[in-house]
Design goal:
549 residues, alpha/beta, Alkaline Phosphatase, subunit A, Arylsulfatase, C-terminal domain, 2 domains, 10-stranded mixed beta sheet, 15 helices, 16 strands, binds calcium ion
Length: 549
């Protein structure tokens, strides 16, 4: 009997050693945009912001067209946990949650024999359905980081605080502790390691305060001057009358929320003592606010990168580095001063694009890049496929394992990504919008209303030719040369909406507005002008009452 058990254990160990089920380490930072990763960067490349992540990229595959379907934290995370688009999984804004029994990805991983753990930012509100969890409450804190941890009391009763520690250090310490004390070496692991950094308002560990202190951070071309060809009546108002009211700004353009106004209070040490947004030139306060913003942000990024070096060193030491699929991503993109924008939310690429890097030397060749369109709803299918799990029909996303392993798209692979931002004019003054993104074009429809079809901003359409205009600065929606492309793309957009299940049934009053301005004929355009005027008046009245005008 004894030898039989021994033989069985031997056979099981052998099966694991053959690596039928690879370990999976899913690393996600919060708001870490591609422009701030060396493997993607342009303006910031010389600063070498992420040497550790860049090594991962050089040894694996880098996706240039990975997109989220809604560029805010909770919806993006919900897409990854469920494999469903926001309008299907129900998490269309920051108020949503995913019930424990609907957290498909970790449930299927456990059923497939994986030991599952999540450590760090969670943001889906309900108890995580992992074998082990240690997650931040809500956004969590940068310092003296508190966690909700699995334990005797019911969720969310058990908490532990890492006094004096920065969240990136505390999260990495916690993941390393899980590996050292809780990992079952007889099972493959599925670990989600999720940083809070570099989410706003950025705060780095004290040891990074001198990093980049004496460096002049390179500026994007459009920080001070945005070309007039950018945007539409939806984003600028009729004759530019809403430029002060739509999209929060680095400079003092938007009086409701501007880094030139806000950051001095948060980071006084980053500004000269004579800094004053009322007496200094707008160009100078924009410049100083941008420098403060980028330095705080990049110090948070540095903390993420250094902690990953520490985590990877452990995996190498334990012989786990090469038999673990390591994924690095951010939950969406972020604006780093381009077009004078801050934050995310827009359907433009700066916020819609996610960094996505996969390293797994056993089957993924080193140093390849792919321009295949992949979406965050596809990520769970990819991981399940690597784990040998068949993808349930209820998941909308598809595995792109074959693309990872060959760099080539299957002939039937998707050619467009779907985008929708629902939180009309909340927080950062972005209108309700939806978009289709192909490899060559972006068509954005700002329908401009809330869930009830109310609080309208002017509806408008924008079309960008990404082959000639990758920074999306030249709206060619009304350009005669693009009429055919535009009309074909609009048809494709309607079909894509139906295909992903955004059929208007979720918020019918909102859908009425969507349909009303879909063809955007002369009457629609006239009505958009009237809405622009009415919105300007109402916003000025509100600001006047708040003393901000
Ligand atoms: Ca985020």
């Amino acid at each position: 009997m004894k030898w039989m058990i021994a033989a069985l254990v031997f056979v099981q160990t052998l099966a694991f050693a053959e690596n039928k089920q690879p370990n999976i380490l899913f690393i996600m930072s919060d708001d870490h945009t591609a422009q701030a990763i060396g493997a993607y960067a342009t303006v910031l490349k010389d600063l070498n912001p992420t040497p550790t992540i860049d090594r991962l990229a050089a040894e694996g595959i880098v996706f240039d067209n990975a997109f989220c379907s809604n560029a805010i934290c909770t919806p993006s995370r919900a897409c990854i946990i469920t494999g469903k688009y926001p309008h299907v999984n129900g998490v269309v804004d920051l108020g949503g949650n995913i019930e424990t029994q609907h957290q498909t990805l970790p449930i299927l991983m456990r059923q497939a024999g994986y030991q599952t753990a999540i450590i760090g930012k969670w943001h889906l509100k309900r108890e995580p359905n992992f074998d082990y969890y240690k997650v931040l409450p809500g956004q969590g804190k940068y310092h003296h980081t508190e966690f909700r941890i699995q334990g005797e009391k019911n969720w969310p009763g058990n908490t532990v605080t890492h006094e004096g520690q920065h969240s990136s250090d505390a999260i990495t310490d916690s993941t390393l502790e899980w590996f050292r004390t809780k990992r079952d070496p007889d099972k493959p692991f599925f670990v989600c390691h999720q940083f809070k950094a570099p989410h706003d308002f950025f705060d780095n560990a004290e040891r990074y305060q001198s990093y980049l202190a004496d460096v002049d951070i390179p500026e994007p071309d459009t920080l001070y001057d945005v070309p007039e060809t950018f945007g539409s009546i939806a984003t600028r108002g009729f004759q530019d009358e809403l430029v002060t009211h739509i999209g929060t700004s680095i400079g003092s353009r938007n009086p409701r929320r501007s880094y030139a106004v806000d950051l001095k209070r948060l980071y006084p040490e980053e500004f000269p003592s004579h800094y004053d947004v009322k007496t200094m030139s707008e160009r100078e306060t924009t410049r100083l606010a941008y420098q403060a913003y980028l330095k705080k942000y990049l110090r948070c990024v540095k903390g993420v990168d250094d902690n990953l070096e520490r985590l990877f060193a452990y995996l190498k030491q334990e012989g786990l580095y090469d038999n673990t699929i390591i994924i690095y991503t951010g939950d969406q993109g972020f604006w780093l001063g381009e077009n004078d924008y801050q934050d995310k939310r827009w359907a433009y690429d700066k916020s819609m694009r996610m960094p996505f890097i996969v390293r797994y030397p056993k089957s993924i060749p080193a140093g390849i890049r792919s321009d295949a369109i992949v979406e965050n709803v596809d990520f769970p299918a990819l991981m399940l496929d690597f784990a040998g799990v068949s993808i349930p029909a209820s998941m909308q996303g598809r595995s792109f394992k074959q693309i990872c392993e060959t760099g080539k798209e299957p002939t039937d692979w998707k050619q467009a990504a779907y985008y929708r931002y629902w939180m009309h004019m909340a927080h950062h003054d972005n209108p309700g919008e939806m978009a289709i993104r192909t490899k060559t074009h972006k068509l954005i429809y700002f329908y401009g209303c809330d869930y009830k079809g109310e609080n309208q901003t002017p509806p408008g359409w924008e079309l960008y030719d990404l082959t000639r205009d990758p920074d999306e600065l030249n709206n060619v929606y009304d350009h005669p040369d693009y009429r055919t492309v535009r009309d074909q793309l609009k048809q494709q957009f309607a079909e894509l909406r139906a295909q992903v299940g955004d059929d208007g049934s979720h918020y019918p009053e909102c859908e009425k507005v969507v349909q009303e301005f879909w063809d955007y004929d002369a009457a629609d355009r006239q009505k958009a002008i009237e809405i622009s005027r009415a919105f300007k008046l109402s916003r000025e009245q509100a600001l006047g009452k708040a003393g901000k005008l």
